[in-house]
Each structure stands twice: as C-alpha cells, then as structure tokens.
Design goal:
Elements: H1 2-21, E1 31-34, E2 40-45, E3 51-59, H2 72-79, H3 89-98, E4 102-107, E5 111-119, H4 123-135, H5 141-158, H6 162-175, H7 188-193, H8 196-206, E6 212-218, H9 222-232, E7 256-261, E8 266-274, H10 283-295, H11 301-309, E9 313-320, E10 328-336, H12 340-356, H13 361-374, H14 382-394, H15 401-411, H16 414-424, E11 431-436, E12 449-452
Parallel strand pairs: 2-6, 7-11, 7-12
Antiparallel strand pairs: 1-2, 3-5, 3-6, 4-5, 8-10, 8-11, 9-10
Helix pairs in contact: 1-13, 2-8, 10-13, 10-16, 11-12, 12-16
Length: 453
C-alpha cells in the first residue's frame, strides 16, 4: 500500500520539484522604441548564439477580410515574398538562401506575422530585403495566379480531411456573420474571386508603419537597431489606422448537432461554444480548469475517462483559443462511429461534474506545477521570445504580464476553478459538428437537435 501511495504522488512531486527549480526564472523584458512614423520596435538583446530573429506583426488577420473575399489577408501575406518593386521572387529567395537564413509567413485571425532568422553578422545585409517585402510588394499577375493555384489546391486538400470539415462547419455555425466565420485560408470560391487590385488595396490599408510592431531578439545592440530601422523606413509614412468592429456572436439557444456524411468508419467530433477573451478576469482559473478537464494530455479527466477507462479513442482534447474577440472553446475526439454517442455524453458529463464538484488537491497542485514549470520552455529560442512579446502587444498586455500570470495562477483556489467552470462551460448550450458515416452513427442525447447533410 505504501508503495502505491508513493507512486500515485510521484508525478506531482516531480512536477513541483521541477517547478521549484524554475522559481527564479524571469521572462525577458523588451526595450521599446517608437519611431516617428508610428512603427514600434521591441528589442531583446540575447547572447549565446550569433543569431538574430526579426518578427513583424501586422494587425488585421483574417478578421479583416471582406465577406466576399475570405482569405484576402492570408493571400496578401503569402504574396510578399513573391517580388517587390526592386527585387524579383528569385532574388529574394537567393538573398535568404545564400545566407542560410530562415524566412516564414503566418496569418491568423487577428494578425499576420513575418519572421526572419539569420546570423547576426548578416542582419545589415538581409534586413533591407525583409523591410522591402513589408513596404513594397509587387502584386505581379503571374505570381498572383501561381499562388492562387497553390492556395486552392491546399484548400481542396483540406476538404479530404474529416476533422478539417468538422472544424470549418463548427466555426461557420458558431460565428454566424461574425468576422471569425471563415477559415484563415478562405474558401475555394472566395480565393478565386480575389484580384491583384484587392491584394494591393489590402496592403495599402493595413501595411502601414503605425499598424506594425517588430520584435528583434538576439545578438544585437538596441541603439544600432533603432538607427537601422529609421534608415530603412524613412519613406514609410503613417496613415489612418484601420480598425475592426466585431459583430455579435450568435447566442446558442439549444444544443445542436450537424452530421456531415462521409463513407468512413470513424466519427470526427468537435463540440464547443464561445470561449473566454484573453483579458477575461477568470482567465487563469480557466486555464487551470481546462488543464484538469481536457487540456492536460495524459493526465486530464477526459483522457482518463474516454481513452483509459472506456477505450473509445486514441486522443481526446479540450482547448480554448484566445483572440481579440471571443475565440472558440472546443472539445475534440476521434472515435468509432458506434462510440460517438458515448464519447459526447462523457464530455458533457465531465463538464457538469467540474461545475458541481471541487477539483482535488492533487489535481490543483499538478496543474499549477505544470504552468509554473512550462513557462521557461516557451522562451527558449529567439523565435519563441519574439512570438511571446508580440502576443502580449496584440492583446495590450504589459511586458511583465507573464510574471503577473505566474503569480495569479498560483493564487487560484479550487472554488475559483469551480466558479470559472460554471460561467464558461456550456454543457446545456453547445453545438457539435461531426464528420462520419451518418448511416452507421447513432446519437441519442435528449434535447439535442440533429441535422444531417
């Protein structure tokens, strides 16, 4: 018996010991500078490796797409490395490749991101190319058509993925006419409708210096960096900042299920509702609650119940995505068609349980230890540091928000978690999208309105 007790508490003890070892850790604090044209620079000098990462965040993202042109922000972002007014796509690629540099583009719902990592000795040679992409892209018609073909092919490939179908249907249903109602990549029809002039107009409106924040992390001298950016942006002029007015997210009046037919043996389930904003007062309690409920991987309640005890799925997860407006709070599972009913009922039952009963002391201890111990790993590389400080900037958080988060999360009580679960979880007002063989899958949940297509 003694051995059993020791083994049961061993993971928590290891987590707590590891977390304690990290207690002296402090997140890097960027040095902030705003240029005369409104461009904001966040500089984090970092020694150790002779590398530097430059990451630019352009506010907007797919939430800024016009209704008929879903995917416009992503299309524009992807076009930037395909030629400028003074450089061809080939010349740009050669500049980065010959220096062994890494360049990447990513567009999400609220912003687009552009990242360059290179040897610090090559920064003065490559930064002019990077800044040229941001300021002077050339929307060459042949490159536009070439990229359009690639984007459409990618969208078509997603249509062959059952979980992608469930997710696309889920976000359309959850958001109605809200700006988050479509995938970042857009749809085949909307991407097909985008013209070169649309890309130029979007770039002119959103790629203005006072709508851009650039993080520079690595072996650099802040004083030299500011001067270099002033020189490279002297013709980049400030303009009126485009704002996004978010619409209303439809209220879920009753639980509903949309079943999408595909001749497959599995059910790809996405259940959810509106999630909390990043600035929600219960955000830290919600993170702990979700870790215990379904976000904690092998130690979460849903994983233990649905995979270990019921043997219904290889993986099950819950997650909420913070955005500038409410992101989705989702529960996902892939299971056999015959098991979907039980898996959904278990998800609902576990939501109700964590709303009614306090979590255990051990669950709370392990969840807090996880967050305290995992934070330093989010700041290991230059790219990760840049991503973290740009994220804080997007949400209007202070540079020391991470320190505040770590303090707040340790103060969360079991009652805080129960109250957050009661307010944020919706076991009676949710929607479910499921890609499955509708001829085999049977769902019998009282009060659940079911539609098949």
């Amino acid at each position: 018996m003694k051995k059993t007790i020791i083994l049961a508490f061993l993971p928590a003890l290891l987590l707590a010991t590891f977390a304690a070892a990290q207690s002296g850790w402090q997140p890097p604090r960027p040095q902030r500078a705003a240029l005369g044209n409104g461009l904001v620079l966040l500089v984090v000098p970092k020694t150790g490796l002779p590398l530097v990462t430059v990451s630019a965040m352009v506010r907007g993202g797919s939430a800024s797409d016009p209704k008929a042109l879903g995917g416009l922000a992503n299309f524009t972002a992807e076009m930037l490395s395909r030629g400028t007014s003074s450089r061809t796509a080939r010349q740009i690629a050669q500049s980065f490749d010959q220096a062994g540099a890494q360049f990447s583009v990513n567009c999400d719902y609220d912003a687009s991101y552009f990242s360059l990592t290179c040897l610090s000795q090559d920064l003065e040679k490559l930064l002019p190319v990077f800044m040229d992409l941001l300021q002077n892209p050339r929307m060459d018609s042949s490159e536009v058509e070439r990229l359009r073909e690639q984007l459409v092919t990618s969208i078509q490939a997603q249509q062959d993925q059952p979980m992608s179908l469930s997710q696309e249907a889920f976000e359309k249903w959850l958001y109605g006419q809200h700006q988050y109602d479509h995938q970042v990549e857009g749809e085949e029809a909307t991407v097909g409708a985008i013209r070169s002039g649309d890309l130029s107009s979007y770039h002119k409106k959103y790629f203005i210096p006072n709508n851009v924040v650039i993080a520079i992390v690595g072996e650099v001298k802040p004083g030299n960096i500011t001067g270099l950016f002033k020189k490279l942006t002297k013709t980049w002029t400030k303009a009126e900042t485009p704002g996004i007015i978010y619409g209303q997210i439809p209220k879920i009046e009753e639980p509903g299920l949309l079943m999408i037919h595909r001749p497959i043996t599995q059910a790809y389930v996405m259940l959810g509702f509106q999630g909390p904003k990043r600035l929600d007062p219960d955000y830290q309690a919600a993170r702990l609650m979700n870790y215990i409920l379904g976000g904690g991987g092998f130690v979460s309640r849903l994983f233990t119940k649905i995979r270990v005890q019921q043997g219904l799925a290889y993986d099950v997860d819950s997650y909420f995505s913070p955005r500038l407006d409410h992101g989705p709070y989702t529960f996902t599972v892939q299971t056999k068609c015959q098991s979907a009913d039980t898996a959904i009922k278990t998800m609902i039952a576990e939501m109700e349980k964590i709303q009614k009963e306090p979590v255990s002391d051990q669950e709370l201890l392990e969840a807090k230890a996880y967050f305290r111990g995992s934070y330093p790993f989010r700041y290991e590389t230059n790219g990760q540091i840049a991503s973290q400080i740009l994220g804080a900037e997007l949400y209007g958080l202070s540079p020391d928000q991470v320190t505040k988060d770590l303090e707040l999360i340790q103060k969360v009580s079991k009652e805080d978690i129960r109250l957050a679960a009661q307010r944020l979880l919706k076991p009676r007002n949710y929607i479910v999208t499921m890609t499955t063989d509708t001829a085999i899958t049977r769902i019998s949940i009282p009060g659940l309105a079911i539609e098949k297509k």
